[in-house]
Design brief:
Elements lengths: L11 E4 L5 E3 L4 E3 L4 H15 L5 E2 L8 E6 L15 H4 L3 E5 L4 E5 L2 H14 L1 E2 L8 E3 L2 E5 L5 E7 L7 H13 L4 E5 L1 E2 L2 E2 L8 H6 L14 H12 L4 E8 L4 H6 L30 H15 L4 E5 L8 H17 L3 E5 L12 E4 L5 H10 L3 E4 L2 H4 L21 H5 L15 E8 L7 H8 L2 H10 L7 H17 L13
Helix pairs in contact: 1-3, 4-6, 8-9
Bound molecules: ligand TNX.
């Protein structure tokens, strides 16, 4: 494996010798049939170079061009065709840098976007010192992700983070070739998405947050804009409405959902598991139908997450009934259901994505569901819960599943989490950041970085291409980009930064 500063590590990278390509005043991106991607690439290169790299309509055979190509089969990228599922194929790419030009090839636009992030990571200062001199080493990188779902879940319910913070999260994710942003939009402490059929939800319950901190919410337009911003960077947004527990914000806004008909008090503590919907109230099903139908209509992506976690005050039959009602509504709206591991207690449609988080009973819970056709998303808390403290001295964060140092997030095998489950049943890996103790963007990035880079490599890179030592060298380069972006990050003592 090469020592090129790429995170996540690629399948293969070969330095081909020679000076590489120096970005200069003649450099331009050839749009061809892909004007949107071309302008994204030109924008990224301009930012690197410090001068504007233009887009031209054609000229793919000329020197000093950055050329984008969509190809039909993996062999044209230099990848073996066999075993590349469609979910993995969309992320595959090839980057070729010579002295004359740069060629980015892929099977889909997402692969081209990943290839562009590879250029950013490869860029080094050019031969002429001074602003704007950027050199790309002469290389051929051929790469495809191990898993199709490489995600981050952000809890915006306990503490609210506005669209501009989420755009920075998206930028960081894209740079790591992550492709799913899961938004935990509702919980006991707040409701963060305007649902047009039920305006009371945000009118009342967007105002609260943990510790009486300020609340907030996303309008329909905010979500649409964020979703488009993410899509332009190869990232799908998955909205989560957490049901049938974690619903105090809904019960506080809509008294009709409680047996007494009275709204509950607002809740700004950090206990879990106490709130619940009631399957036998006539108001519950219409509530689920209104909210989930609106959310499905508001998300262009294929998934709606229905939560399902930690309902500690309900019999299994009622739980299953509520989850199944929610799932049928989401499916009726044309979306695939995602749920936390507990939804495995309900009857699930094959293809439902079950998200493992609690390793204490997760494997036993999800195995029968996976055998019955569910797909597995891996978020084992002791590895990828990035709200857990790094060590006992970390000023913020929780400790319920132990401490999670950088190497804990790196050194694990996704297939060992639920022994015996085949790789074909695993959709991928998703980190999560819960925000009970996370109050500011600085807090958020301090917990995310550098661990998110480790999780990204676990999700992208085949196990035999990974090494902690190699990651240590490469992540040091990456950290400079966090410094340039002004992001706060944790200087783990495990790395000689
Ligand atoms: C468990 S993970 C929860 C969240 C907490 C988190 C804190 C999951 C599905 N439920 O409600 O915020 O632990 O780490």
């Amino acid at each position: 494996m090469t020592d090129l500063p790429l995170v996540p590590a690629p399948l293969s990278a070969t330095t081909t010798g020679g000076p590489g390509y120096v970005l200069g005043p003649r450099t331009r991106v050839v749009a061809g049939a892909l004007p949107d991607v071309a302008s994204t690439v030109a924008h990224r290169l301009s930012r690197l170079a410090g001068f504007a790299v233009p887009v031209t309509a054609n000229g793919a055979d000329e020197p000093d061009t950055v050329v984008l190509r969509l190809v039909d089969d993996a062999a044209a990228l230099g990848l073996p065709d066999a075993g590349l599922s469609p979910e993995r194929a969309v992320g595959a790419y090839r980057v070729e840098v010579t002295e004359r030009r740069v060629t980015l090839s892929a099977l889909a636009v997402d692969g081209l976007l990943h290839a562009a992030t590879v250029l950013e990571q490869l860029a080094a200062p050019g031969p002429d010192a001074g602003p704007g001199a950027v050199r790309l080493p002469a290389v051929v990188v051929v790469d495809a992700p191990r898993f199709g779902w490489r995600g981050l879940s952000v809890d915006v319910a306990r503490h609210f983070f506005g669209p501009e913070v989420l755009r920075t999260v998206v930028d960081v994710m894209a740079s790591l070739r992550l492709n799913v942003l899961h938004l935990h939009l509702t919980d006991d402490q707040g409701w963060r998405l305007d649902v047009p059929s039920r305006p009371q939800l945000v009118d009342v319950s967007s105002k609260t947050a943990v510790g009486d901190d300020p609340g907030g919410y996303y309008s329909v337009d905010d979500l649409a804009e964020l979703t488009a911003y993410a899509r332009a960077r190869g990232i799908t947004v998955v909205p989560e409405i957490d049901l049938p527990g974690h619903v105090n914000a809904a019960l506080h806004a809509l008294g009709e959902l409680t047996p007494s008909g009275e709204p509950t008090d607002p809740y700004t503590g950090i206990e879990v598991g106490f709130s619940r919907l009631h399957a036998d109230l006539p108001t519950t099903e219409p509530f689920l139908r209104d909210v989930l139908t609106d959310v499905a209509a508001m998300t262009p992506g294929p998934y709606v997450h229905v939560g399902g976690d930690e309902v500690h005050t309900m019999e299994r039959a009622e739980y299953a009934r509520l989850v199944e009602t929610a799932a049928r509504i989401v499916e009726g709206a044309g979306k695939t259901v995602v749920g936390w591991q507990e939804v495995a207690k309900a009857t699930l449609t094959p293809g439902t994505v079950v998200q493992l988080w609690d390793e204490r009973d997760g494997a036993e819970l999800v195995r029968p569901a996976v055998e019955a056709g569910a797909l597995l998303l891996l978020s084992p808390a002791s590895k990828v819960y990035l709200d857990l403290k790094y060590d006992a001295s970390t000023p913020i964060g929780l400790e319920w599943a132990g401490h999670v140092e950088l190497r804990d997030s790196y050194d694990w095998d996704p297939l060992a989490v639920v022994p015996g489950v085949p790789e074909s049943s695993v959709v991928g890996v998703e980190a999560a950041i819960w925000t009970e103790t996370v109050r500011t963007p600085e807090d958020l990035f301090f917990l995310l970085l550098p661990r998110l880079a480790a999780v990204a490599e676990v999700a992208w890179t085949q196990g035999d291409r990974r090494s902690w030592e190699g990651f240590g060298v490469r992540v040091r380069h990456l950290a400079r980009s966090w410094d340039r972006a002004g992001l706060r990050w944790y200087r783990s003592p495990q790395i000689p930064w």
